[in-house]
Automatic annotation (TrEMBL):
Cofactor(s) needed by this chain: [4Fe-4S] cluster
Domain of life: Bacteria
Protein name, as recorded: Radical SAM core domain-containing protein
Family: Belongs to the radical SAM superfamily. Anaerobic sulfatase-maturating enzyme family.
Pfam families on file: Radical_SAM
InterPro entries per record: Aldolase_TIM, rSAM, rSAM_sf, Sulphatase_maturase_rSAM
Domain Radical SAM core: residue ranges: 40-157
Alphabetical UniProt keywords: Iron, Iron-sulfur, Metal-binding, Plasmid, S-adenosyl-L-methionine
Biological source species: Rhizobium favelukesii
Length: 157
């Protein structure tokens, strides 16, 4: 009686993806992929980065975003864009959301920030907001808004 794996068994196992010849070969990579897929189940989308304006009131030499001068027209969200973003947020299945506002300088569009903030507070059980700002011109209104929002200072010199 034969004990152990025959050559035919090995061929069958290799042909059907149940064995590999060496780490890194196709069968091994396939097993790794299936194993990793079972370990990680993606959750609901609950973190979004919004850029309501590309305008900025600084012109840092090292700037790596597509910023434009503060007075340049055409680089802010339109009303239609704001409505589309609200619709997008409303369609999320998560019960908690984290929104990070980036720019440009997002505080140049306080009206948009407040509208998104108010909508999120009415729509989700838990909300967190981050404003990535250079704090160059913090109006009283901006300070009041930021009292309830974490302001992340940009690295400006
Ligand atoms: S504050 Fe930020 S967005 Fe504005 S110019 Fe400087 S690095 Fe660019």
């Amino acid at each position: 009686m034969h004990v152990g794996i025959t050559e035919g068994d090995t061929e069958f196992l290799e042909a059907n993806g149940h064995a590999f010849q060496e780490p890194g070969d196709l069968a091994y990579a396939g097993f790794e992929y299936r194993f990793a897929s079972r370990l990680y189940t993606p959750g609901d989308l609950d973190y979004v980065i919004l850029v309501p304006s590309l305008r900025c009131n600084l012109a840092c030499g090292y700037c790596q975003v597509s910023r434009v001068n503060e007075k340049t027209p055409g680089f802010d969200w339109t009303d239609e864009t704001l409505k589309a973003v609200i619709r997008f947020l409303d369609g999320l299945s998560t019960k908690r959301i984290k929104v990070e506002f980036q720019g440009g300088e997002p505080l140049l569009r306080l009206d948009v920030l407040k509208e998104v903030r108010d909508f999120c507070r009415s729509r989700f059980d838990k909300c967190e907001f981050v404003v990535c700002t250079n704090l160059q011109d913090p109006s009283d209104e901006a300070c009041r808004l930021e009292a309830g929002i974490l302001a992340k200072l940009k690295n400006v010199s």
